[in-house]
């Protein structure tokens, strides 16, 4: 019955975990799916400079 809440909580926890791991490094990851998270971190900062240039 609480599957929606569980999904939201999991997504929030994963997002925070990915952000923390992205700053500290993939060494904190106990599992091996590191390459999947690394490319996701690169496009995010690339969008920020584009917006700041327009302003």
From TrEMBL:
Arranged from A to Z, the UniProt key words for this protein are: Cell outer membrane, Lipoprotein, Membrane, Palmitate, Signal
List the biased-composition ranges (Low complexity): 38-49
Per the UniProt entry, the signal peptide is 1-20
Q: Which region ranges are annotated with the description Disordered?
A: 25-55
Q: Where in the cell is it found?
A: Cell outer membrane
Q: How does it sit in the membrane?
A: Lipid-anchor
Instruction: Give the InterPro entries listed for this entry.
Output: LptM_cons
What's the protein name? Lipoprotein
Q: What is the lineage of its organism?
A: Bacteria, Pseudomonadati, Pseudomonadota, Gammaproteobacteria, Chromatiales
């Amino acid at each position: 019955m609480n599957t929606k809440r569980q999904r939201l909580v999991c997504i929030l926890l994963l997002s925070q975990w990915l952000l923390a791991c992205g700053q500290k490094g993939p060494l904190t990851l106990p599992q091996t799916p590191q390459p999947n998270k690394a490319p996701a971190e690169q496009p995010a900062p690339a969008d920020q400079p584009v917006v700041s240039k327009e302003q």
